[in-house]
Amino acid sequence: MKVAVVGATGLVGRTMLKVLEERSFPVDELIPVASERSAGEKVSFKNREVMVVTMDEGLASKPDIALFSAGGTVSREKAPLFAQQGTVVIDNSSAWRMEPDIPLIVPEINGNILTRRDKIIANPNCSTIQMVMVLAPLHRTFRIKRIVVSTYQSVTGTGKTAVDQLENERKGLDGPKAYPYPIDMNCIPHCDIFLDNGYTREEMKLVQETRKILADKKIKITATAVRVPVTGGHSESVNIQFKNSFEMEDVYLQLRSFPGVVVQDDPSKNVYPMPLWANGKDEVFVGRIRKDLSKKKALNLWIVADNLRKGAATNAVQIAEYMMTHKLV
To answer: H/E element holding 78?
Structure first.
């Protein structure tokens, strides 16, 4: 099994290598791929150093699976070249997510739609993944009518420059900046670029990707995405209005029985999800579960997950695992 990691020197790429190793994915030959300027560097994998190669060299290696985390432009250009030679491409960028014929996959939710014909598979946005992991079991049972979500997103979602900016600001140092304003001691309601409708692209990803993954175009969704000075993961305040009535016992039952979701909800003992504790973990954590007292058939939730892991790298590796387990690659 030849596995390429495209964008192997980035935050998500390095996390992909870590997750492949932790989950004992059957890698016979690892092909770390990065830009021309990073070629020749080495990355660590299973207690050994592996040389980073160029995109052309990675393509010539004809991997069985390629995990892409190199940005949308690179993916648009290079993913089809890998796919044409039979490589299964699992892409972490937004390049392919909303293409009608490209599956957008969270394995626990809709892995069953994958087939051997799928050579490019889209990995959803980090903030979308953790939200739909909680929404999916509730939607199947109570049918979601409307969602209002506000996100509190880690600087790791922007990349290494953003992490460096936060660390430099805390140390009183100058350096490259990922944001137009200081991020330390601040909240910036600006994730990704602003669109003509006044929403950011990150906010619209939450709208469009959620509908596609849950296979329900009728769900009404509105979002506000905010960048906050943390590094452990993304947090989300989610208000859900259902079509059907529900009992709280049933809500807890659905969430506790869904794979990959951990309920942390005991306010009397100050138990609730936080990015400080989600950091480095693969599960999606949910708490502060309570009825909306202002509206019938409505529920409030607080959802937290490590955006580099389940929000990106782990979900991509889980897709690869699903493809192998079901003999689709």
So the answer is: helix 72-84
- Residues 153 and 307 sit within 8 Å (Cβ to Cβ): yes
Beta strand 234-242 with 144-153 is antiparallel
Q: Are 61 and 76 in contact (CB under 8 A)?
A: no
226-248 pLDDT, tens digit each: 999 999 999 999 999 999 999 99
Query: Quick check: helix, strand or coil at residue 237?
Result: strand
Residue 170 tokens, joined: 């805390």
Q: What would the DSSP string read from start to end of 255-273?
A: HHTSTTEEE--BGGGTB--
Active-site positions? 126, 234
Q: Which amino acid is at 326?
A: H
Rounded to two decimals, the pTM is 0.96
Interval 122-148: pLDDT, tens = 999 999 999 999 999 999 999 999 999
Domains in the chain and their CATH numbers?
2-124+312-325 (3.40.50.720), 127-307 (3.30.360.10)
Q: Are 184 and 229 in contact (CB under 8 A)?
A: yes
